[in-house]
Amino acid sequence: MTREDDDGAPAYTPEEFLMADTVIRNENHGYWNTNVMETYPNPFFIKLSKKIWSKLPNFMIIGECWVGFMFEHRQLIMARSAVIPRLFKLPETIASVLGKKLHKDGRITNCAK
Q1: What letters, b where the CB count within 10 A reaches 16 and e where it falls short, cover 24-58?
Q2: Cβ-based burial of 100 (10 A; exposed 0-12, middle 13-18, buried ≥19)
Q3: pLDDT tens digits for range 33-72
Q4: Are 41 and 77 spatial neighbours (Cβ–Cβ below 8 Å)?
Q5: What is the CB neighbour count within 10 angstroms for residue 82?
Q6: Which residue has the higher pLDDT, 29 or 99?
Q7: CB–CB of 52/58 below 8 Å?
Q8: What is the pLDDT of residue 112?
Q9: Nearest CA to 77 among 92, 66, 89?
Q10: pTM (2 decimals)?
Q11: DSSP 3-state percent helix, strand, coil across the chain (nearest 5)
Q12: Are 12 and 22 in contact (CB under 8 A)?
């Protein structure tokens, strides 16, 4: 993204970086639009993780993970790609595994058996 055009000028302005105008919104391109996305880790996430971990080895990368049509296994893909998937239902799921119920107001109660 820091590449230069043929005339030596930056391809993107600082404003385009800030406003995320360097990507096509709501489109699946590149890795997410391939047949191998469920087989191989995401090369961008792997490169990013290695770069961060070379300076901060205890750093955790947590990514928002929306699942749905064509992305039923996205959480597995992200985990395989060195990103901890943050799922909307994750806190409720962890609570239920521990035999608890997490309420919308933040209360935790024991599950009725």
Answers
A1: eeeeeeebeeeeebeeebbeebeeebeeeeeeeee
A2: middle
A3: 788 887 888 898 999 999 999 999 989 888 887 777 767 7
A4: yes
A5: 19
A6: 99
A7: no
A8: 66
A9: 66
A10: 0.53
A11: 35, 10, 55
A12: yes
